[in-house]
Amino acid sequence: MQIHELTRPRKINEVVGAAGAVASGIGSALGKSLMTQAFGQDVTPQYGPTQNREQGFQALANSSAAKTLATTMQTAWQQTVQNFLANSKDSSGNPPTSLSQVTQPSIATLKINLQDLVNKMIGRQGSDYKNIPTFVSDPNQKDYAEDIIVDIDKSIDAIYNATLNNTDSKAMANLFTQLVGMGILPAQNIMAYDTGRRGVGGAGVVTMSPAATKIADSLRLDDGDIVKIRQAISNPGGEQYARTILDKRTPATIASPLIIRFGQQTKLTNTELTSLLALAQDAANDAAFKEIFGLRA
């Protein structure tokens, strides 16, 4: 089962499935990622006979998985705001001490930075999260993708306004958790696990050049794998994974602590990591690997 399938009102036994556990369905759909932690074993006691979109995503927003990712986003946002202030001016041309004093550049620039952060965390840096429906091949799911966009918009507005009003850290944490649970994680899933996913050797939601597609197929990486790899590398400090993997002077091994962490985050097996590291040693593959990693060539 896919998380975006929770957009439709469903009987709880349909959601839980034959195994009687939400985590088993969602965990497999997301390649044993954060979603496995998000729902635990059974939401029946919480929501009774029905499980609709708001209930399902709210459970995700309240999960430890969402809160972990939300903390990362909140930290990154705080740094972005600090950098914005450091490079701004007040009406007298002096460095402002608060956002309310900023006259240059336009304070609206800060909201654009927040939107960029959302795109980066979804794994679509350089793209607009509002285009998520274009990744959906099933017409019935496009409406659900539109709902996710609405939720992201609401969260961005709430975080932006709270930032301007200097809202306390705890309240901001709740807003980021809501953004992750209602927007970031569902968006990641709907892009990675739509019915038109590329799989191996096919066409799907992650569009890459022929060279990058050839390498991804040889490594048997599907769209979900690509999204998870890009997510790991787009996280703060994540580019070190790409540098280490592509370093020809000191070839990385699966025994490296850094590569072990990369494997844990992306859920790649040791066999997959070994093949990936071997192909990365060929300089002719660098541009393709950068594309797979979501980096600029």
Fold and architecture overview:
The chain is an all-alpha fold and 297 residues long. It has three domains: 3-51, no CATH class; 64-192, no CATH class; 210-293, no CATH class. 60% of the residues lie in helices and 1% in strands. The protein contains 15 helices and two strands. The protein has helices at 12-16, 22-29, 34-39, 44-47, 53-61, 64-86, 108-122, 139-164, 169-192, 210-218, 223-234, 239-246, 257-266, 270-280, 286-293, and strands spanning 10-11, 50-51. A two-stranded antiparallel sheet has the order 1-2. It is globular. It starts with 9 loop residues before the first strand and ends with a helix. Mean pLDDT is 74; it is low at 1-53 and 195-204.
What is shown here, in short?
The chain has 15 helices and 2 strands. It is mainly alpha-helical.
Task: Give short descriptive properties of this protein.
single chain, 297 residues, mainly alpha, 3 domains, two-stranded antiparallel sheet, 15 helices, 2 strands, 1% strand, globular, disordered N terminus
List the helices and strands and how they pair.
Elements: E1 10-11, H1 12-16, H2 22-29, H3 34-39, H4 44-47, E2 50-51, H5 53-61, H6 64-86, H7 108-122, H8 139-164, H9 169-192, H10 210-218, H11 223-234, H12 239-246, H13 257-266, H14 270-280, H15 286-293
Antiparallel strand pairs: 1-2
Helix pairs in contact: 5-9, 6-7, 6-9, 7-8, 8-9, 9-11, 10-15
